[in-house]
Amino acid sequence: MPRHDEFGGRTDAAESHRILDHYLELGGNFVDTANVYNDGRSEEVIGDWMKKTGSRDRIVLSTKVHGRRSPHVNDAGNSRWHIVREVEQSLRRLKTERIDVYHIHRPDADTPIDQTLRALDDLVRQGKVLYLASSVFAGWQLAEAHFIAKEWKPRVSMWSSRS
């Protein structure tokens, strides 16, 4: 069952677009979604809206990766395979060439953090992602990631939106 707060679920595309138009008119400029919200439909609705309104450069666009996308063993978590595949899918659904803020939604105990960081670093270097964030990492996990990444001087800088 779709969640109430994700575009493309109970709120159809037309109503979602009206909400986003009003948000932009009121001065809003940060739009956040995730690849798993309504099985990618939320990203599609937002992408269609940005294309229709030409609003892409007026907003900070944020999306997330981590959740399961299929029964395939590699199609969840923070592995290089999953991150690279999902950023490409998100870019397609969002109809854009870049994601302004890309969140690693949750820690992944099955994937070494350096694999995750190197995949993210590659995406930043390619210009597909501008900034990186994490949603629910603990402080010690961010410190560990920083310590590991510091050894190879990536362009990765993660911050947490967890309060």
Summed up:
The protein is an alpha/beta fold. The protein contains five helices and five strands. The chain has helices spanning 13-25, 41-53, 80-94, 113-125, 139-150; strands at 30-32, 60-65, 99-104, 129-134, 158-160.
Describe the structure.
By secondary structure, the protein is α/β, with parallel strands linked by helices. It contains 5 helices and 5 strands, in the order H-E-H-E-H-E-H-E-H-E. The protein has one domain: NADP-dependent oxidoreductase domain (TIM Barrel, Alpha-Beta Barrel). Strands 1-2-3-4-5 form a 5-stranded parallel beta sheet. Helix 1 packs across helix 2 and helix 4 packs across helix 5. The protein is globular. 32% of the residues are buried. The model has no long low-confidence stretch (mean pLDDT 86).
- What overall form do the CA principal axes indicate? globular
Mean of the pLDDT scores?
Answer: 86
In the CATH hierarchy, what is the superfamily? NADP-dependent oxidoreductase domain
Question: What's the β-strand tally?
Answer: 5
Low-confidence stretches: none
Strand content range: 5-15%
CATH class annotation: Alpha Beta
Instruction: Describe the largest sheet.
Output: 5 strands, parallel
Q: From N to C, what is the helix and strand string?
A: HEHEHEHEHE
Assigned CATH architecture: Alpha-Beta Barrel
Number of domains: 1
Termini separation comes to 28 Å
Percentage of residues in helical conformation: 40-55%
CATH topology: TIM Barrel
Q: Using only CA atoms, what is the Rg?
A: 16 Å
* Order of adjacent strands in the largest pleated sheet: 1-2-3-4-5
Number of helices: 5
- What structural class do you assign from the helix and strand content? alpha/beta
